[in-house]
Predict the structure of Glycosyl transferase family 1.
Amino acid sequence: MNITIIAIGSRGDIAPYIALSQGLINAGHTICLATHQAYAELVRSYHIPFFPLDDDAKDLFQEEGGEQLLAKGINPYRFAQHVAHRIAHFTPQYMQRAQEACRESDTVIVALASLLIGSTIAEKYQKRLIITILQPMLLSTAALPEPTSPWLPQKPPLLGKTMNLFSHMMAQYYTGWLFLPAANAARKKLYSLPPLPRSFYATLPNLTPLLLCAYSPLLVPKPTDWSETIHITGFWMTKHPESWQPDNELIDFLSTGPAPIYIGFGSMSPYHPLQTIEMVEETLTQIGQRGILLVDKYIYKTQKRSDRLYLINDVAHDWLFPRMQAIVHHGGAGTTAASLSAGVPTIVIPHISDQWFWGERVVQLGAGPQPISRKHLTSQKLAEHLHSVLHNQKMRQKAREIGNRLQNEDGVDQAVKAINALENDKSQTL
């Protein structure tokens, strides 16, 4: 197959598609990964052909409007409005760039954020479309709530099932309301295609012969009311590229004391950077531990701040996390996968959207305590959570067991097998 993968979002949204690209290349497919210019160096470090969808050097959250919303701890619906507005501005450019990236392809693989872009190209030029998702979003089921609503009551069971179905219906309508206008305008102007209906997001399984869910069935088993075209593969996790090496100063820091605690919020890192550093320092002092804190490279450079705290701009999760005694993060799907796979307890500090969902899944697995909202996080609350986690032997044992199980999963291999099966099924036409 000649495949173009179109991925839009933060670095955490893009990383799984690097892993998938590697798997597909190793299986003999020709791959092009079309994503933001900000990730060109990252993608190429894995020897994956790259095509830029834009010319922006910063990711989706590293701009003034996004940082302000994060600083306010805005609700997920307001934040979705902001993301939709930003994507709408670039939609015509994304479509034109994606068209060029897909010129030689027979198959287009899309992430949820790039679905409207990729489906338009696939429709116009008669290419096979494969949809992928990183969270169980926009797929109706009575089994679990929409990820932005993990707080919905589940008892009595009939009420829970009804509320779950309603939450998915509302999410499908709201997503269409946000994203369809810009896409439909570009479809008409660039390709003379008819508008997509408001029901578009309620029909995802009908739009593709294969829908891949890039998360573990250990965290989210497949609901019985989903169609056979939907496959839960396991997480798509990257290993650090061969060219990557940790800083010598970081190695020295790790070797000169007990295992540290990792604290990092991914693309959410621009949120109050100085206050975050001070809060983490105070927390570590309270509990007598050492820590490694992820900071935005545009604000602070990698450095050893003290014998107790080391600041990093970037690090390979698969290398660092198994060396930690606990991991504190924002609850992104990819970071959740990496922290659980490392076999150490996880504390989730949600900022927005589906991060609460993954935080609740960690709790249900017994691998971490209840999430703390980033808006309400204090050094005292973080210290209490960490003290509890570090002294909870049952939780630490459970985290090790889950890590072993996830390490035995191979989500990329399962995805590649499903794609190969689709290619071998002669009944599936372009």
Q: What stands out?
A: The CA atoms of residues 261 and 291 lie 5 Å apart. Residues 248-407 form a domain with the Rossmann fold fold (CATH 3.40.50.2000). The mean pLDDT is 91.
